[in-house]
Amino acid sequence: MPLAVRCYISGLVAAALSVVAMLPLSRTDPRLLAVLCVLVVTAERLSRVRIGASGWTMSVSLVVTLTTVVVLAPPAAAVVGLATSLTLPRLPSWTWTKQFVNAGMMSLVPAAGSVVCYLAGGHAPGHFLNFPEFLLPVTAAVTTCLVANAVIIAGYMQLSSTARFIDVLRGDVRRATMPYYSSGVLALIFLSLWHDIGWYTALLVIVPMYIAHWSLSQYAKENAAHEGTIAALVQAVEIKDSYTRGHSERVARGSEMLAKQLKMPQDRRAMLRFAGLLHDIGKLGVPTRLLTSTGGLTEEEFKLLCMHPNHGVAVLRDIRFLTEVYEGVLYHHERLDGRGYPTGKSGDEIPQFARIIGVADAFDAMTSTRSYRAARSVQEAVAELRRGAGTQFDPALVRAFEAALDEAARSGTPWVPTELTPAEPQPEDGTTAAAVGPWPLPKRVPGFSFADHDDPFVPAEWFSDWYPSWLAHGGEPNADPGRPVPEVLGGIPGQRVAEPEADNAGSEAGPGAGADAGAGDTVGDAGFDDGWSERMHSAVVREPGPEPDEGWAWEDEAEAKPEPSAESTRWPQDPGLYGGVGLGSMRMRAATPAQEPDPRGPAAAREDGAAANEDEADSVRLDAAAPTADLGSRDSDTPAGAGAEPAHLADASAPIAAPTAERQDSMTPVAADSIDPMPFVEAASSTVPADPARLEDADSIDPMPFAGAASSTVPADPARFADAAPSAADFDLRKPIPASQEPAPAAAAPVASANSADSANNADNADSEDTIPVPRAKPGDPEAWAPSPEPWSAPEPTEAPKAAESADSDPRSASSGGPSWFSRGSSASSSAMRFIGPADSGSWPPRDPEAKDSGRSG
Amino acid sequence: MNHAKPPAHRAAFDADSDARTAWAQSNPVLLVLACFVAFAAVGSCAVHGFSQPGYALAFGFIIAAGEAFRVRLPGGREAAPLGAATALAYAVITEIGHQPALHNAPQAVAVAAFGFLVGSVPHLAVRRPTTLDYTARRFLMVALIAWLFRMFYLRWVLGARVDGPKLAQTTAMDPGFLTHHLHSVSVGAATAAFLVLAIISDGLMGAVLQAGQHRRPILAAARDEVRFTTRVGLAVVATALLVTLASRTMSIWVLPALCLPLAFTQVSLRRFARIKEVHLETIRALSRITEVAGLTQPGHARRVARTCQRIGRELGLSEDQLLDLEYASLMHDIGQLSVAEPVHGGRTAPLSLQRQRELARAGAEVIRRAGALGNAAEIVEHHPDPFGAAGPLPSRILRVANDYDDLAGEAPEPAERTEALRNIRLGLAVHYDPAVVESLSRMVGE
Description:
The structure holds 2 protein chains of 2 kinds.
Chain A: H1 3-21, H2 30-47, E1 49-51, E2 56-58, H3 61-71, H4 74-86, H5 96-119, H6 135-160, H7 165-196, H8 201-238, H9 247-261, H10 266-278, H11 288-291, H12 299-306, H13 308-316, H14 323-330, H15 352-366, H16 378-388, H17 395-410, H18 431-436, H19 460-463, H20 469-472, H21 487-490, H22 500-508, H23 515-527, H24 532-540, H25 554-559, H26 565-568, H27 575-578, H28 602-615, H29 657-664, H30 670-674, H31 679-687, H32 692-700, H33 705-712, H34 721-724, H35 728-731, H36 754-764, H37 800-807, H38 811-815, H39 823-826, H40 849-857
Antiparallel strand pairs in A: 1-2
Chain B: H1 8-16, H2 22-25, H3 28-48, H4 53-68, E1 71-72, E2 78-79, H5 81-92, E3 95-96, E4 99-100, H6 105-125, H7 133-158, H8 165-173, H9 177-182, H10 185-214, H11 218-250, H12 254-286, H13 289-292, H14 300-314, H15 319-331, H16 353-370, H17 376-382, H18 393-408, H19 414-426, H20 434-445
Antiparallel strand pairs in B: 1-2, 3-4
C-alpha cells in the first residue's frame, strides 16, 4: 500500500478517535445514545442494499444516522457512526483497509453534520424543535453529511487508484443525493414523532424505508440474475466450440466499453451489452459440422455461415423490448462499404449497435487464439481495425474503441488477449504451419471452423473454396473473355456448365469488362444448383429429409402440416431477417425444384420449374414463409466476404454510370434488384446493347413470380415487421400476378438490359411505397468507397449521377479499377488492402503478414 | 426451416391478454359492487356536504398519482402501495395539524373513489391490457375500513357521530374533549388494527378471486396472496399509520414526505417488474435456440410451457413453483445442445428412459450453470422419471405436458388430440401422474 494511502487512513482514524474522545459523558443521555446505537445497527444489518453494479450500497440506517446528527452532539454522533461501521456486514470484498476507511468515514461524517446543525442553530441536545423551525438546520446538516461522505471517499480513491478526485466526487454526490435527502425527510418525521409520541415510532418510519430497500434489492437481484442467466445460456451455446468460448462475453464487454466511450445512456448501454452477448446466438442454426469443421468450407457451407445473423434474429424476434438488439445482431457482419452480409447494407444504413458490435466482434476475434494462429496482441488488432476503418468499420467507432482501450488500461482492467488452449489437441496437419506461415497459406485451412468468421485477419478466401471465377483462373486481370466457365462452378453437382445464352452474353460484352463475370452469373442464375434446393424441395413436399446429424430441421418441417396461410402471413418478409438475401446477391426466391442440366436451355428449364411450382402450390403454401429455402438456388457468385472482385472491370467503370445512378436510390423497387446487383453485370449491360426481346422472354417465363412479389413487400425494418406483415394474397402462388407486375428474379440476370429492366420495374413497382427493395450494396459510386484515410461519409444518392459523370474523368476511379465496390481490393497501392482482386493478383498471395509484422516491429 | 414458422404461440398469447379490454377482464360482480358503493358515497356527500375540501383534494390527488403509476407485476398481479396507503390513511385519519379531521365515512369513500377513478383513466385511455379487479379490490377495502372506523369505532370512542351536531356541541363546551379522546394509545393501536384488517380483507378477496378465475385451490391462492401481501402490505400499513400519527403535528406536509418511500418502492417495483418480464421473454425466446438448431419441434417449448402453467395452476402450485416450472418447461430440451448425439427433431417421448434421463441431466446441468432459474434445474432433471419414481410434482407435470405435445404436435386436430390423450392414458399411473393426466384431459376437452 502506498505511503500516502497509509497516511490518509491513519489520519481519518485518528481524527475519528479524537472526536469520539471528546464525548462529554456527563452531558450525554446514555439511554438516548443506546437506543440510537441499537436502532442504527439493526437497520444496518437489515437493509444494506447494493445498488446496481456500481458497488455503491445504501441502507435504511441512513435515516437513523441523520437523526443522530440532529439530536446528538458531534462526539456522540461520531460514536453512533462508529458503532455502525463496526457492524457492517462483511462483503466478499471486505478488507481491513476498507474497514478502517469506513470506520473513520462513518464517525467523521455524522460529527461534521452535527457541527453544522449546531452552527445553523438547530442543535440543542435533548430538545426538539418544532416542524418548520428545524427545516434549515436539518437541510444544512444533511448537505454537509453528503458532501463530507463524498469527499472522504473521493480522497481515498484518488490516492489508492488512478481515479480522479473530481470524477469520484461528482459521481458520489450524484448517486447519494436522492438517498440522503429522502432519508433526511424521514429523519424529520422520525424526530417529530419521537417528540410527539415516543421513540418506538422510529420502527414505523423504518418499515416503509425497509420495504423500499427491499424492492430495490429485488430489482438489483433480478437484474443481476437476468444478466447472469443470459450469459450462462450463451455460454452453454458456445460449449461445443472451444475457440469461441467466452467470445460473446468478451464482445459484450468490448461493446460496453465502446458505449461508455460514446457516452450512451445507461439503458442503451445495457441493451448493447445484451446484443453483444447474443450476437452469435444464431450460430446454433448452423449445422454442427460447420462448427467443428476440420476442412475448409464449401460454398454451401459458406452460405450457411452467412445466415447466422438471421438465425439469431429468428431466436430473438419475440422479445419486445429489444428492437435495437436485434438490429445489432442481424447486421453485425455488415461492412461499411456494403460488402458485408446478410443484406449488404452500407454506411449509415447499418444501425449503430451493429457497427459497435462489429468492431468489438472483430477485435475479440483477433485477440483470441484460433486454431490456425495464436492470439494477436492488442496493438496488432488495433492496427488492423484502423486499417479496416472506413471500409469495414466505422472510423469514429474505431477511434472511440482505441480510446476505450486506453481508458480500460488506465483504470487497471486492460484488454487481455485470450490465450486459449483448447481442450482438443490441435490438428497437426499443417494447421500450426498455417498459424505462423510460411505464406502463401493453403486456401483450405485445416481445422478452420466457424470461429474464424469474425476474424478480419482471415481473408474471405479462406472461408471457402468457392472462388469467384477469375480467381480460379489465376486471377489474370484481363483474362480471355472467351475462356471456359470456371471449373469451380462447373464442379458443383448439378451445375450447368455452359449456357448458350451465357456464351452469347460473353461474346457480346466485348473485350474485358466483366463479360466472364456476367457469363458466370448467368450460369449461376439460370441453372445453378448444388443440391440444396432439391433438399428443400423434398422437405417441403414431405419426403424424407437429409441425414439427421446435420442439425437442421427441415425434415421436421416436412413432416409438419402446412401452415394455415393466415399464420404464414404473420411471418415478416424481411430479407434481413429471413435470409432472402445474402452474399451480396440480394435476391429472394422461392424454393425451386432441383433442376438438372437441361439440354433445351434455361428457358425451358424455367418453364418446367414454373409448372412444378404451380403443381405444388397447395403443398408449398409456405414458400414465402420459408425464404431460406432459396439458399441453394440463390446466386452463387457474390460471396459477401470474397472481396476479390475483378479489378479488370476497371475499364467498365465509366459506362456503368447510368444504372448505378438509379440503383443508388434506396427506394428502387425490388424488381430492379432481381437483376443482379453485381456491378460487373451492370458494366456488361451497359456495354452490351440491350436485348429487349430476350428480356421480355426472361420476364414472361419467370418461374417464380411470387418470390419477387414477396421481396417487394419487405418491410424496411425488422422492428416494423409486425405492422408490415403483408397479406396472404401477396404470397399465394395461385394468385395470378399481372404480367407487368411480374418481376424477374431468376431470369433477368442474364447480362443484358439491366438498364431497361431497371426502369421498367421501377415503373411497375412505383406503387409499393411502403416497402423497400432488398437492401444491397451500392456499386459504382467511385467517390464513396475509394480507400482513404478520411472518415467515411455516406454517399448521397443525389450525388450519384454526378459521380457517375465524373467517373470518366476521375483518374482515381479509373485507375482504381471499376466501381468502388471493388476499389479497396483493387487499389494495389493502398496499405489498407486486404481483399485482393485480380489487379494485383500477380502478387498473390495478397500480403505477407510476416513481412508486415516484421516491418512493423522493425 | 423451422424459424420460418409464424409465431403461432404469439397469436395465442395475444388472445390471452392483449386483445381483451379491461372491462372484459374484470370480475363483473366486483365492478358492480364497487360502482354501487362509489355512487352511494358520492350521493351522500352531495347531500351532506364536504368538510375540509382542501385536505380531501390533497389526499385525492396523491391517491390518483399512486394509482396512475401502479405496477403490473409479472403473473398479472398488481401493486399500488401508494394509492392504497393514502386512501387508507384518509379513511382513518382523525387530526390534521392540531385540527380534528372529522369527515364522515362517505366522504372518505368518495375521495378514494375519485382518486382511483382519476388514476385509472390513463390506463383505460391507452387501452392497457389490464384488469380493474385490483383497483376495485383496493377501493372496496378502503370503503370497508372507512365505514367500520368512522361509523362504528369513532362513534363509539367519541360517543357521537363524527359529523353530527352533538359532537360539535360537546367540542364547543369542552375544547379538550377531542384531544382527550383521540390522543390515546388505544386509539393508535385500534387504528393499526383496522389497517391490518384492511390488508387481510384485501388478501382474502384476492384469494377468492384467484380461485374462481384460474380454478385454483383456494388454499394455494390464499398462500400466494399472503406471501405477496406480507411485505408490500406491511409498508402500506406502516405508511398509513405514520400519516395519521404524524399529520397531527406536521399537518398535511407529512403526506408528500411519507409518500417518498412508497413512491420509491413503486418505482423499484416497476423496474423489477420490467426486468422480470424481459427476463421471462428472453428465456422464452432463448427456448427457441433448440428449434433453430433443429433439435425440437417448432413452438414445442412454448406449448409445453403453456400446458404446464395451466395444469400447475389447477393443481395448486405456488407462484414460485409455477415460475420455476415455466423456466423448466421452456428449457427442458436445452440438454440437446450439449449432448454428443442430440435427438434430431426433438421428440423425446419415444426414447428410452435411459436416453431421456441423459438428456435431462445435460439440460439440468446447463440450467444449473445459469444459476438464477430457481429450481428449474431440478424439475428438468427429474422430468423423465416415471410416476413411480416420485419426482416432484412440477416434474410430473412437465413430463405429461412434454409427452402430450410430442404426441399431438402443433395445432392438433381434435382427433389427433384424442389419440394423443389416449396414448397418454395408456401410461397412466405407471409413467404419468393420474392427477396431472386428469387435469390435462380437462384442458384438452375444452
